[in-house]
Write the structure tokens for this entry.
Amino acid sequence: MRSPAKLKLLVFALALAAVAVLAIACGGSKANVRKQDPNSPASKLVDVTTAAAIKRDLPRFFEATGSLTGDEQTDVAPQTSGKVVAIGVDIGSHVSRGQMLIKLDDSELKLRVDQAVAQLEQTKAAVRQAEEKIGLKPNQAFDPNRVAEVSAAKVALDLADKNLKRAEKLIESGDVSRSFYDQQRAQRDQLLQQYEAALAQARQNFAAVAVARTNVANAEAQVALARQSLSYAVIPSPIDGYVTERTADLGEYVSPQQKVATVVRTNPLRIRIDIPEQAIPEVQVGQSVSIATSAWPDKNFNGRIARIAPNVSAQSRTLTVEAEIENSGNVLKPGQFATVRILQSHSEPAVLVPTRAIVNESGVNRLFVIKNGHAEQRLVQLGQVEGDLTEIKNGVAADEQVATSNVEQLSDGMAVKQ
């Protein structure tokens, strides 16, 4: 029989041998796996297509972003209070200037017009009565001597003047007595007073005519105001454009402080951008611009610089420029975000590559130049975009071949197949 110590030693030796065999087997398996790795760069070539970087003169422009706004936009509010009895438009409706947006109840306003007209007729009757009192015809110039009472008093006064002058001559020759002369003189003085009183009364009566005519003018003004208030029952559009908001509903009571609709003119549209200080000499009114939007990435819209601010911002050192964009088809909408380009008067040489050759990762732009069957990574700085080409400011020279397909699968130094 074997001793227990020898048995333990034998078991331990067998365990060590089993562990060694297992380690050799695993190591051999892993080595085989590595040799058969199908993803190894040495065992796989990436198929790529290439295009040559080209060099050409590129028109230069200023590029900025901004939001489109309507040429005109107005919030419409009523000029009188009332209940809404009719609605002529809704959001998106096209309206012409003067077209009805909202109509208010006008029954009370019509009564005010009728009342003002009646008052006007009453004042006109008072004028005719005052004119007839002094014998004045409509549109006739006032002459107090044409008034009957004044005219009669004037005739009597003229006769008394003649009798007095005759008595003066007769008293000198002694043909009449002194008392007769005094009697003629007293009669003339009395008739003179009557004439002056009639003249004053006629003028007073004409003043009443003037007051009555003033009352007519006031009444006519009241009629005009009443009719104007009646016209306020129809709330029109102040401009041609589209309704962007309608806040009044049928049956609602509105007041002059309440907006009932918003109308915007969409052709042309406006956009404001900021121009750097050094570029100010390159910008002038009438200069052509183009814009692009994310809604229409393959389409440019043309316009012109319409207004230039008179001052440069002290904070940003930029000049605010406002452009008008043609929008006859109403494709563009106010509020859209747009990129604006202002073409400069000169061109500069630039290197361009297909945009699809560029890979952007975390804000870093790179592409791969293919040389001797291998991909060479270049970090690049981008410039202007011209159709499907992008300007490369550094990192690539003209005529170098850049990968344009499977660029996401490439890495620096990787073998490729063209």
